[in-house]
Sequence to fold (698 residues):
Amino acid sequence: MTSIEKVAELAGVSTATVSRALAGKPTVAAATRARVLEAAQELGYVVSASASSLASGKTRNVGVVMPFLNRWFFGSVLKGAHRTLADAGYDLTLYHLDSEREGGATEPGDPRRTRLFEEFLQRKRVDALIAVSLEMNDAELESLRRIGKPLVGLGGPLSGVPTLSIDDVAVAKLATEHLVSLGHTRIAHVSGTSTYARDFHLPAHRREGYETALREANITADPRLVRSADFTIAGGYAVTRQLLGDPEVRATAIFAASDEMAFGAMIAARDVGRRVPEDLSVIGIDGHELCEFFGLTTIDQFPEIQGERAASTLLRELEPHTQHHAPENVSLPYELAVRKSTAVAASPA
Amino acid sequence: MTSIEKVAELAGVSTATVSRALAGKPTVAAATRARVLEAAQELGYVVSASASSLASGKTRNVGVVMPFLNRWFFGSVLKGAHRTLADAGYDLTLYHLDSEREGGATEPGDPRRTRLFEEFLQRKRVDALIAVSLEMNDAELESLRRIGKPLVGLGGPLSGVPTLSIDDVAVAKLATEHLVSLGHTRIAHVSGTSTYARDFHLPAHRREGYETALREANITADPRLVRSADFTIAGGYAVTRQLLGDPEVRATAIFAASDEMAFGAMIAARDVGRRVPEDLSVIGIDGHELCEFFGLTTIDQFPEIQGERAASTLLRELEPHTQHHAPENVSLPYELAVRKSTAVAASPA
DNA sequence: ACGACTAATGTAAGCGTTTGCGGTGGATTC
DNA sequence: GAATCCACCGCAAACGCTTACATTAGTCGT
Fold:
């Protein structure tokens, strides 16, 4: 085992100096530091994480809790978070709070779920936590608070937790306005649902933005135009089939609360013989990588950047001195990306 | 801070006994153990990971290295691995070895990539490593070996590393045989490519299985029927457009090396007016969640189970005594799932 | 030339567990 | 009833670092 002592010996200094040199402390002479670095390099020495943590109280590790692991959006957030953490020398340990129905640790009360909060997150393995789109109850929130580490939420409904989120109302309004500006008046909205109905306000916000845009354009909202699905392609498809199958609806445009649902909508439209965008315009939200492929107009919300932001927010708190090239700005960016799925409304047939 | 001493005090025993009781060691009287557990519960005590690691040399943490974070397959593997690790009380720390072209740490020599191998993975934060679909050079492999921890590869071309992998040749053969059994003779193959051309033998294996199946069916292979894409929907789409646009090809079926490419193929077919499966049969590999939606026939390779297997293999090595309900079997399961995208070949037009 | 600083380094006391070793007392054996 | 054994538990020494504090050697001002 190559410990810090070996390095000290080889460099001809004390272990304290090695520690300081390797940690980049300013109180080490340049020449000494160089010698230490060289010795460490030669021995292939790397500080032991656990020893360092125990002594310093810092783990250089950040936890990320996520409800989904195999969805593009969440993977992208993870990617962004990992990149900025790694660049700062931090590790990322991942906690999956499974939110799928069957067998998943969905409901509070599920043993796996309890164990996550009561055991895994309490063992001081991380310096801080990122909670992505998490819905939890008060006991869980309390147990998060008990770990006494910086915590930032991303897009979730965590009451009392500093949370980064796009302005869902504004985003939805922008999307709807895009359709309005193209002359559409029969605009349907494929809204989202949560796995369990708690106060997951994202769908509500987006619906609010949709309705606001309509109101401002003096278009009367028609409840038959609004349907909910589960954020997936299949969900968007099914709902759109309903929408297009109902002779009373007569929608010329669809605003879906996620890109995946929008893809489903596009496919559904095609399956019933409606051309996109000639007969039906479709717009989504997310900036999914497949938008390019499907030609879907969307509001890009840059999920990777969201992950970066969450991470750099925490880093700034953990290392107040260091310069992180992270923007101070808390509001998350979004951007209308116009592609081929939206066009001027056809004159009423 | 509630340390082990507080618990010892409350339970009226020494810290040694608390440690043993909490660790489930057999040399603790049942009554004592109960008292300790109760005391720990009451104080909300959880063993400090770093102190425990330092003292015991075990971190109860496994590292997972992946080239992609936002692709369904990799997310699913991650999900499976996380579940079995968590059930065994292990944490999972994630390392992203970015394999996308632009800006990613693709090429060996990239500083981020080097740092991962030389620094992050060396700091003894994990007891073992899972390397998923990783391509690396000798220096990198050597540095992995230097960390001296159990290591298992999943589906990657890691020479000299115990690797779990489906039998790609057999899988491809099975897929092709399915098409053959439906009477197809002009069977195209959409093969995969790697980001950088190293010895990533998965595409080669699958092509080999394809060719073997043809040979055994006395169908002469036609090189014009084989094209490569990058495992994505867009890639599969583009290649299929070529295939169907070439009058010399006359394919009635396509075997794609991944489900995503198969989706692309289905969409391409529809875009050029070919009906699936009436005019063109399509089969993929993976068991992607969207297969159901698209009605794609595929060979399911159960990625979540692959993650589970990789994890339980390591757990067995880390805890030889414990009973893990993991199968001894090293060969990974796969299964033909027939849906609506494959049908009997139309009689030649 | 001498005291007062400052910069650089060393000394050693933790950090919170785990675990080898040894001790104690009750049960078992002859 | 002595000898032996065993089940259970406590003592205290690591584990490999970090860091407050002490120490040393220059530097500077006067």
